[in-house]
Amino acid sequence: MARVALFVPCYIDQVYPQVAIATIELLQKLGLDVVYPTNQTCCGQPIGNAGYECELNDVAHRFIDQFEEFDAVISPSGSCVHFVKAQYSFINQSDSVKHVRNHIYELCDYLTNILNIKNFNTRFPHRVGIHYSCHSLRGLDSGKPSEIIGEDYSNIQSLLETVQDLTLVHPERKDECCGFGGTFSVDESAVSVKMGQDRCGDFENLDAEYITSTDMSCLMHLDGILKQANSKTQVIHVAEILNQTVTS
Amino acid sequence: MHHPVAAEKFIQDTPRVNWHNKAVWYVREKRDKAAQDIPEWEQLRDYASAIKTDTISKLDKYLIEFEQRAIENGIKIHWAKDADTHNKIVHGILDTHQSRLVVKSKSMLTEECGLNPYLEAKGIEVVDTDLGERVIQFAKEDPSHIVMPAIHKKKEEIGELFYEHLETEKGNDDPNYLTEAARHHLRKKFLKADAAITGVNFAIAETGGFVVVTNEGNADMGVNLTPLHIASMGIEKIIPKAEHLGVFLRLLARSATGQPITTYTSHFHKPREGAQLHVVIVDNGRSRQLGQEDFRRSLHCIRCGACMNTCPVYRRSGGHSYGYSVPGPIGSILSPNMDPEKHASLPFASTLCGSCSAVCPVKIDVDKQLYKWRQVITEKGFAPNKKTLTIRLGKFAFSHPLTFRIFGSLSRKAGRIFPKKLLNTFFTKWTTGRDLPDLPKKSFRDWYLKNGIDSHD
Asked: Where are the alpha helices (DSSP H) in chain A?
């Protein structure tokens, strides 16, 4: 049986443990042998995106060391997975590095493309809007971005469509960025907040009870905006929805 | 002024930023509809990208081929290594012809070179004949978009400008009325002008001809009414063959405005009888860009502006916030090549959402280049928000798991103990508009060591 590791991004470990718990529980219920390497920290994305890739050598090597022995690495964050896949070219491309970069998956992509799951027997009786994580969508090809001309597909949507009593709502701007962008959220605070407010508005106008995503970082930003505005709309990571009542 | 500062100013006027966002997004939607009508759209993008890759890899060959053919056709060719040389050449030609009034159709290259102020200082009147360009010329502003230079102006403001400059009725902002007024005003200028300046959309190496696209016919009007036509082109405007126009023209108008084709696609091959035709070929930093592997693909750009229309940051910060002749995502990867210190904030003025790269008709990896420019700017010591200490601390914590855990645990504790109001004052950049997240007692790792392994076994 494949040995899979759980990669829990630093901020999920510290701020949103429930998301990682939902992820590991979900994967275990699906019969996977999941291990959480307990000395993991961070992939280094905040440092790289801030322009300090030159400082990341140790961080990246440590990341690879944690995960090289596993057949697959799964994470509830498209953005961090994308960073490893797309940006880890600054370290020497040893076999371990190549192996990890080729076998690291965002959760929904793994469920869809590798496990080929078609049904969860899960129930979530709410109005839910999908906020597409840009790095999942455009970086990991986990769906067809609205700019690209071709056949529509979306891993997260296909999974959520199998959830009983869940009503999907679809904003007009299907995949507009939420404005988080890591350090962008503080360096360009005004633009970031405005983008986030607009994005929240797209879902509030559809009476969405929940905004869900493959990335908790987008949701952290949107949640901050919703809470400050005392909105009725809440955020929930997709793993938490899919882990509601799995009866596999 | 760095981008975040200028953007914050623009954002203060909420109704205006909402209007701007909507107006620009409308053009993105028009682009989507037009692109969807072409089943082979993605294939066209592949072709365009491949042709451009080939072109810029043999740019010297194609440029010389173009020059030879153009000279054979009777066109006079000039080479300008930078903006200043370009301006001097253009002024020299105008001076020889004793031209006093020049009609110019839209050319982002002349904006890049600052040609208008240069010529005006020499006593030459330059009239921008593209309606949007004329509007901002009246307003004494720079273009805020490369295709729709006055997209930031509301019709009421244009009415006011025309009342001041064209003596239209005060308070009349009917677009038809204003356009008609501009038309009459520009006709007079066209008839009086003694030279015309245009840009170049595509220069074809095998024919020595070039193509200029407009929607208003203003390029043709100027070129056909005056005895002197000067066309300015960047070295990257070359395409090898005339047949390649079939790829680029289909992509350009659809990407730019959602039109199947621009109203006018004018092909110039030789001077008119009794007239002169000059082409100024400009480098101005482009060959330096060509020499940088990570950034050379930016020279694929055909200046359609689609990356601006799709960019969520551009739509909410306005073109002027970028402080460069080409704003938006493409401008943010071109400008650091011109002056990495002055434009240091631009590669950071992006969430790296990648919409620019996905919409780009010539498949420039804009978001990847933004990321790369961030690294270069930091290395050069120009990073707009110096974070060296924070970064070093982060790096240390991420390399030492125990430190990371202790720091995380203490931060969570502090987050729970201290009153929100106090915390907010430390993190105003986050808390202006957003609440801080509630922090849990235990990290996931804490939970896993207690529950995860048990439940797994």
From this structure: 10-15, 17-29, 45-49, 57-67, 78-82, 95-102, 107-109, 134, 155-161, 184-187, 189-204, 216-228, 238-242
The contacts of residue A19 (CB under 8 Å, 6+ apart) are A12, A76, A216, A237, A239, A240
Q: Determine whether domain B56-284 maps to CATH 3.40.50.2030.
A: no
pLDDT tens digits, one per residue of B308-337: 999 999 999 999 999 999 999 999 999 999
Domains of chain A: 3-114 (no CATH), 127-242 (3.40.50)
Can you tell me the ipTM of this complex?
Answer: 0.96
From chain A, the residues in CB contact with B25 under 8 A are: 173
pLDDT digits (tens, 9 = 90+) for B279-289: 999 999 999 99
B114 part of contact set with chain A, CB < 8 Å: no
Q: Is A91 on the interface with B (CB under 8 A)?
A: no
In chain B, CATH 3.40.50.10420 sits at 56-284
> Which residues lie below 8 Å from residue A202, measured CB to CB, with a gap of 6+?
A129, A171, A172, A173, A176
Residues 6+ apart with CB under 8 A from B306: B28, B31, B255, B256, B359, B360, B361
Chain A residues in contact with B395 by the CB 8 A cut-off are 47, 52, 55-56, 58-59
Interface of A with B in 165-224 (CB under 8 A): 173, 175-177, 179-198, 220-221, 223-224
Give the 3-state secondary structure of residue A129. strand
Considering CB atoms only, which of B348, B368, B445 is closest to A187? B348
Chain A 130-159, CB below 8 Å of chain B: which residues?
A: 134-135, 138-139, 145-150
The backbone torsions φ and ψ at residue A198, rounded to the nearest 5 degrees and listed phi first, read -65, -40
Pick left, alpha or beta for residue B257 (phi over 0 → left; psi -120 to 50 → alpha; otherwise beta). alpha
Burial of B16 (0-12, 13-18, 19+ CB in 10 A): middle
